[in-house]
């Protein structure tokens, strides 16, 4: 599966394709400047308790906690940004504000660069090996 997408939630042209990091990733399909908004992520609004229940025993999930009580499950989302992989040396960041989940470039991105973010705390709780292969990799998610 490799496809270009310009969903309504994408501010920049991106392509979803196989990633050397894990499964599928999202890649810049145009040059992107530092600080540019890349796109947004939407999904099913659920409670954090439900998000944590859904995460149990699953390796691949697409959940973002918005607050202590609210989360978004992007598993069925059509947004390309749901394929953003983790890196210990990310080139983008996730910003969660007022219920919106948005992605911004941390440096200039060239066509073909895989867009990565630092996931922060995850349901894996340090038990899943990190595959980013970046210098200084923490080794675990």
From TrEMBL:
Cell location: Chromosome
Alphabetical keyword list: Chromosome, Methyltransferase, S-adenosyl-L-methionine, Transferase
Keyword Metal-binding applies: no
Entry-linked InterPro entries: SET2_Histone-Lys_MeTrsfase (IPR050777), SET_dom (IPR001214), SET_dom_sf (IPR046341)
Coiled coil: none
Main location: cytoplasm
Domain SET: start-end pairs: 12-120
SUPFAM superfamilies reported for this sequence: SET domain
Classification via PROSITE patterns: SET
Protein name (database record): SET domain-containing protein
Organism: Roseateles oligotrophus
Origin organism lineage: Bacteria, Pseudomonadati, Pseudomonadota, Betaproteobacteria, Burkholderiales
């Amino acid at each position: 599966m490799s496809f270009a997408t310009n969903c309504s939630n994408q501010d920049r042209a991106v392509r979803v394709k196989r990633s050397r990091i894990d499964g599928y990733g999202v890649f810049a399909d145009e040059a992107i400047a530092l600080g540019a908004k890349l796109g947004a992520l939407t999904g099913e609004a659920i409670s954090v308790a439900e998000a944590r229940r859904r995460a149990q025993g699953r390796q691949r999930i697409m959940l973002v906690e918005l607050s202590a009580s609210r989360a978004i499950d992007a598993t069925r989302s059509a947004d390309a940004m749901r394929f953003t992989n983790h890196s210990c040396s990310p080139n983008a960041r996730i910003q969660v504000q007022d219920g919106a989940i948005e992605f911004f470039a941390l440096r200039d991105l060239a066509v073909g660069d895989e867009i990565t973010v630092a996931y922060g705390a995850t349901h894996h709780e340090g038990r899943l090996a990190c595959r980013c292969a970046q210098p200084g990799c923490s080794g675990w998610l």
